[in-house]
Amino acid sequence: MTDAQQSRLKLQAAAGFRLPALPGTPLEPRHYSSTYHDTVDHRLASVGVALRYRSEHGYGAWQLRLPANGSSIELELPGSPDRVPRRFRDLVTAALRDRMTSEVATLDTMRRGVRVERSGRVVAEVTVDQVVVRAGEDSVRAFDEVEVDLIEGGERDLRRIGRRLHEAGAVDGDQQPKLLRALGLAQADPPRVDPKAPPRRQLAAMLQIQYHAILAHDPGTRLGADPEELHQHRVAVRRLRALLRAARPMLDRAWADELRDELRWMGAALGEVRDLDVLLEHLEDEAAELEPDDAQAFAPVLAVLANRREAARALMLAELRDPRYIRLLERLEHDLAYPPEAGKAVKPRTIAAAEFRELRKARRQLGPDPEDHELHELRIKLKRARYAAELAMPSRGLKAGRFVKDAKRLQDVLGDHQDSVVAAERLRELAVATGDPRAALSAGLVIARQAERRETAREAFPEAWRALKRSGKRAWL
């Protein structure tokens, strides 16, 4: 399977549009046919995914385009046009679930363009596509599209090229997938929170935002090329669960608690791999700071950890293929638009204030030198207070926003503290697992650094807490 990650600008052009003079090499003109596959209700296109079989000069291959952090990832696999590769179906499980796909449109494309070069590097490819949409043997629609795909360039290059294309007559167009344009459909707007809406509708929008984030990051989690995709997947699950907890006074309690239990299971399925990703990245950075001989001795520790991460990933993928996960996604899609309500309406500000009081109470119960586990428990309560504050942000505005900002800062401090504690514990166990005395000695050096990291976090804690306490009082008391 081949893949490429791209940042892209899409513009529209009238028939006969000519590219302006751009420094570089003209691309060989291409003529290819793309048969798109989707469900009858276009579930893939609606989340920015394109699944197609592309044929050109007698060669055909399946292509899958996935959204990823503001750009896209394109994957390609050889295969028969009669059957979608199993690997591709697995990557889009969250969107498709058990639904079947079929051919929904065929696009014939004539492409011409230029490979833009500057200072000896390939900045981008700029192309003009003349697209004809076919249904059977008949042409039913045509449009022209201009695309800029960054290769080695950055956002500044993208803006510069975009200005040149606008000057040549191209206009801003919708950024929706070609398939939706071909079918004359509009991509659904992502859910957003309306500050003027009733609190219950604001809550529903917040819950749906997290559900859509789960859908968006699920393919990247399965692909495994970018650890950030798994991180954001897990964050969405955690935030959804926290919002349901914070909003329990507004919701049917039994429904919310049952759904939170299922989300806890989903979060646990993702959690071990994410925790190992964080630990592995940190220990690789630590190893880079060691003397060469010590770094070499430490390598078996990293190898054991990497093997455990791969084993954990295999278990995670099995969970993501479990029918339980599919049922949960179906339930989230069905329930979160109109979550079952409780008998009374509670203002989000009231909920946020209650969580802040609980957090202050927990802080007062800590002694002058809290145990490691006590600071970890405080961090859990801090997350609850933060997510409750986010629930109230649309109506509370800047004061709530300041509290959330300070909560993130304190959360980072306590997160560093917890990561250092966990890293030290894991290192001791990993050093034993290697059975290598030299590895154990090098691990001891890294453990000593974790102790320094732990103390640094403890020193930063009081100031970060005072800032949060001040902004919390302004926002909620």
Write the layout of secondary structure elements.
Elements (H helix, E strand, L loop, with lengths): L1 E5 L1 E6 L10 E3 L3 E9 L4 H4 L3 E7 L2 E10 L2 E8 L7 H6 L1 H4 L5 E17 L2 E15 L2 E13 L4 H13 L3 E2 L5 H6 L15 H25 L3 H20 L6 H36 L3 H29 L2 H13 L12 H17 L7 H25 L1 H37 L2 H40 L1
Antiparallel strand pairs: 1-7, 2-10, 2-11, 3-8, 4-5, 4-8, 5-6, 6-7, 8-9, 9-10
Helix pairs in contact: 6-7, 7-8, 7-12, 8-9, 9-13, 9-14, 11-12, 11-14, 12-13, 13-14
- Please write the string of helix (H) and strand (E) elements: EEEEHEEEHHEEEHEHHHHHHHHHH
CATH H-level name of the largest domain... which superfamily?
CHAD domain
Low-confidence stretches: none
Rg is: 26 Å
Overall, the morphology is: globular
Q: What does the average pLDDT come to?
A: 91
Count of helical stretches? 14
Tally of domains: 2
Which sheet architecture does the biggest sheet show?
11 strands, antiparallel
Q: In percent, how much strand structure appears in the residues?
A: 15-25%
Q: What do we call the CATH topology of the largest domain?
A: CHAD domain
Structural class: alpha+beta
Which CATH-level-2 architecture of the largest domain?
Alpha solenoid
What is the class of the largest domain in the CATH system?
Mainly Alpha
Number of strands: 11
Helix percent band: 55-70%
Query: Distance between termini?
Result: 56 Å
